[in-house]
Amino acid sequence: MRKNANSHSGRVFSDRKWAIPFFASLLVSVSLFLTAIFGVLSSSSGGEQLPFDIISFARSEDSSGYFVESELKASFNTNVISTMKAPRFAYLISGTKGDSHRMMRTLQAVYHPRNQYILHLDLEAPPRERLELAASVKSDPTFCEVENVRVMSQSNLVTYKGPTMIACTLQAIAILLKENLQWDWFINLSASDYPLVRQDDLLHVFSNLSRDLNFIEHTRIAGWKLNQRAKPIIIDPALYLSKKSNLAWTTQRRTLPTSFRLFTGSAWVMLTRSFVEYCIWGWDNFPRTILMYYTNFVSSPEGYFHTVICNTEEFHHSAISHDLHYIAWDNPPKQHPIALTLKDFDKMVKSNAPFARKFARDDPVLDKIDKELLGRKSRFAPGAWCVGNSDGGEDPCSLRGNDTVFRPGSGAERLHELLQTLLSEDFRSKQCL
């Protein structure tokens, strides 16, 4: 009994040894806390002091410095400020196995020294074809001099209906943002796309537009698409495998989200720098939330940007529901574009769209577009920047002039007519509904 009592007494004595340091540290902490409070209340700033209980940490001018998110938001909001300088476009041109020559033809047809270009030939293409594409860019004297054409060295496996296409697009945007700060709109094209206007036409017309307009065809997802696209859960094998295969369908189905609305539309877009910066930085985490949701979504390239922009207060008013493409669809159910041929030429022109898709490789209609719409006789569609001698079949674009001077033609007139319709009050009132 004595032994146990002594043991118990020792533990009590040992606990008491920590009492004095504990209360001393508590007293110091309270003192520092009270000092901080009274320091805030008594600090002089040349005016009346605000009571501590009404200091607000809500989103406001006074509170913006407290959070890193506000700094990120401010960094891309500065780009919304429009200057009336000539615009610049940033193009992503993508392709797969056997598309390298088509990609070069599309690149040359949309080339202008003011713009930026990035080419992505996916992993399905053999290494030799990717090396040949890079060699073609490197050997072009204009590309080497201007240094505005890049070939993505990291090739990704891309499934059109899967999220890997979105991942590739976001990667290209991130590269363009990191390596060059001087562009206003991002445009994605495939090797089967082709322009219907010259870059001088496009740059001239967009010189007079606000830099905050996003051209992205969109509509609320409804009808059969709800059941066949929104509710199934798919897996894109390109995220895990080295060979392309079809989407894998799971047996599970999910309910529709309640915190945001789902939109769908064309995968081909023309997006502002400020909006794609928001998608990359995602200062409020919303773009990443949507990206995770669309990772298992059927035809996610036709919904990701659309859902982000229409659920974001800062950008939904800027969405113009048009993809700036002429596309002929199968009928019904209008899910697959028909290859365009010579018989579609007049319809393409009358659409006033600056781009069209899809075209078969080296189809004769492309030569007709080069001759009658682009005036292309050599490497590039000519523009005011081409000041060389064209006599004797020489390339006038081998000598560069002022790239801020444009020589608009009939393509500019057609595009201007289209934009008058797209920017009308009646058309814009239907956006993101």
UniProtKB/TrEMBL annotation:
One of its GO terms (molecular function) is glucuronosyltransferase activity. Keywords: Glycoprotein, Glycosyltransferase, Membrane, Transferase, Transmembrane, Transmembrane helix. It is found in: Membrane. One of its GO terms (cellular component) is membrane. The keyword Repressor does not apply. InterPro entries: GLCAT14A/B/C, Glyco_trans_14. It is a single-pass type II membrane protein. The chain crosses the membrane at residues 20-41. PANTHER family: CORE-2_I-BRANCHING BETA-1,6-N-ACETYLGLUCOSAMINYLTRANSFERASE FAMILY PROTEIN (PTHR45719:SF9), GLYCOSYLTRANSFERASE (PTHR45719). This is Beta-glucuronosyltransferase.
